[in-house]
Design brief:
The chain is about 15% helix and about 25% strand. By secondary structure, the chain is of the alpha+beta class. It comes from Lentilactobacillus sunkii DSM 19904.
């Protein structure tokens, strides 16, 4: 009986153990279920929009500020990994190297309303996504707008002269704006070579201030004797160093035009070398007819003959280039800012025969000085771009460089000279239709792929809309296509599969209506475009043309 009772007690204990174990297992199972539920309940953000930014790249330069880290994807997405911590970005934000500038090129929005931008450092070291706030209208969060260049501080000395053919220590350390004398000086590249440090070659923009915009030339050795004038200046925001835009005084060296550190230049003044021999030479001087004063510029014509004497007639002799004195005067042209005055008010003849010269060409003698009359001329006529209003009677709107996909249309230097009213009497006029009419010289140059680097023609095999948003469906409207210039993205017509761009087409009739029929030399002409939209894919820029926008009034 004892054993039976003991067994009964064991059974009770066993049952109690089993019940306790089951309860414990149930608790673990329940706890595990709760934890699993909590784990699966953790949600990640989802991207609802992801677009490539298409506005002018120069408007998308940004800087980080260290308040948010950089990730491989939007930071709240599943699997996002850190590319650079907040501490790292905070240090980069104050870097003194422009290589640490940033460009934003994509934007994404999540289902939580957060905006993320994909950015890359100019040197390519860092690339990833960073929180940019709650709106795409302005950078926020870990980003801010950033100007990679800054206007230099005003010069405190406008009277000091540029040093003579040397690079001074003060020039190397100068960060303020150029003085009047420095702007007027002529320069050479101090150390021609291939070093990519900002001082030996030229750049399309100051180095590292625009993403993937680099050198204009990679070796300045061929331009060791070239001289340049300064046309613009700026400082790099991070370094604070002074950069200048240079333009060759001889168009044969224009391929070297671009930006360079001011410290990479040396001022240059020519030392006149006397080659005048009274037995073989004739001096050419120039008189300003508006003031009656003789200019400092002179030239010397020298015969190739060795049998002449001072006082003898120089009329029938030529120089080593086979030029008579008249042809030599024509080849040299007038000093800058002047035009040779002619006896018949026509263009100067190639033999110089109608130049106003004292004494006359027919009386030129060896050892004498011939004085050529010159008249001040206006600067080159420039243009300002506008887009016609879609509403009759409303004023046209000004077009900025950033309105165009590739910036203002660039023209070759030769096209600018041949197609625009260049020089001419300061009190003279030109007929606008001759240059800007439907058959005008500027109209032809602007729309020619041989002189204009961004002009393109779109055909009727794609959708085209007019300024009012109406699709053009009549082939006769664009029977030969539309020739013009691509603008920025037109979001109102873009689709995921077919992005649309604005397209600007020159309108000669509206241009003539926007200007007087005759204008003074050196005036600015309003150029009017019609604006269309198209889903045609823009072709790339014709980088083979050495073109510029010097003719545009900025």
């Amino acid at each position: 009986m004892y054993s039976l009772k003991g067994g009964t007690k064991m059974n009770k204990n066993l049952k109690r153990s089993i019940y306790t174990g089951i309860a414990a297992l149930s608790f673990v199972a329940i706890a595990g279920t709760v934890n699993a539920t909590n784990a699966s309940a953790k949600s990640y953000a989802k991207v609802t929009s992801n677009k490539t930014l298409t506005t002018d790249g120069t408007t998308r330069n940004v800087n980080v500020n260290g308040t948010n880290a950089l990730y491989t994807k939007a930071g709240t997405l599943k699997g996002a990994k850190t590319v650079a911590t907040k501490a790292t970005l905070s240090n980069l934000s104050t870097s003194k190297s422009s290589e640490k500038n940033w460009r934003a090129y994509k934007v994404a929005t999540t289902n939580r309303g957060s905006v993320y931008y994909k950015v890359v450092s100019f040197d390519g070291t860092y690339r990833g996504w960073i929180y940019g706030g709650k709106s795409t209208s302005a950078y926020a969060g870990g980003l801010k707008d950033y100007n990679t260049t800054t206007d230099p501080t005003a010069s405190t000395d406008t009277s000091s002269s540029a040093s003579s053919y040397s690079t001074t220590s003060s020039q190397a350390s100068q960060t303020s704006a150029l003085t009047t004398a420095q702007k007027a000086a002529t320069y050479k590249i101090a150390t021609p070579g291939t070093t990519n440090d900002g001082t030996e070659v030229t750049y399309s923009y100051p180095a590292w201030t625009q993403y993937k915009k680099g050198r204009v030339i990679t070796d300045s050795t061929p331009y060791k004797d070239a001289t340049f004038k300064i046309t613009d200046e700026t400082t790099r925001t991070r370094e604070g160093d002074l950069w200048v835009k240079i333009e060759a005084t001889d168009s044969a060296n224009s391929k070297a035009n671009g930006w360079i550190k001011y410290s990479g230049l040396t001022t240059y003044t020519t030392t006149p070398v006397s080659t005048f021999n009274a037995d073989t030479s004739v001096k050419i001087a120039y008189r300003d007819t508006s003031t009656g004063k003789t200019l400092s510029t002179t030239n010397t014509w020298t015969t190739s003959s060795s049998s002449t004497k001072e006082g003898g007639s120089a009329v029938n002799y030529t120089n080593s280039d086979g030029q008579t004195i008249g042809k030599y005067i024509y080849s040299k042209g007038a000093p800058s800012g002047y035009k040779i005055t002619t006896t018949d008010s026509k263009d100067l003849a190639t033999d110089g025969s109608n130049a106003t010269v004292t004494p006359s060409l027919s009386n030129a003698t060896f050892g004498a000085t011939l004085t050529v009359d010159v008249t001040p001329v206006a600067s080159m006529t420039k243009v300002k771009y506008e887009v016609a209003s879609a509403t009759t009677g409303n004023a046209n709107s000004t077009l900025s460089s950033s309105d165009f996909l590739y910036g203002y249309p660039a023209l070759t230097a030769s096209a600018q000279t041949s197609s625009l009213p260049v020089g001419g009497s300061t009190s003279g006029t030109f007929t606008v239709s001759s240059y800007f009419g439907s058959d005008g010289t500027f109209t032809k140059a602007l729309n020619s792929t041989s002189s204009s680097n961004s002009v393109q023609t779109i055909k009727r095999n794609s959708d085209i809309w007019d300024a009012s948003g109406n699709e053009i469906i009549t082939p006769s409207v664009i029977a030969n296509g539309l020739t013009g210039f691509f603008g920025q993205t037109d979001s109102t017509k873009s689709t995921t599969s077919a992005p649309a761009h604005y397209f600007y087409v020159y309108n000669a009739t509206k241009t003539l209506a926007a200007n007087a029929s005759t204008m003074n030399n050196g005036s600015t002409v309003n150029i009017v475009f019609d604006r269309y939209s198209t889903n045609t894919t823009p072709a790339s820029l014709n980088s083979d043309l050495n073109a510029n926008t010097d003719y545009v009034s900025k």
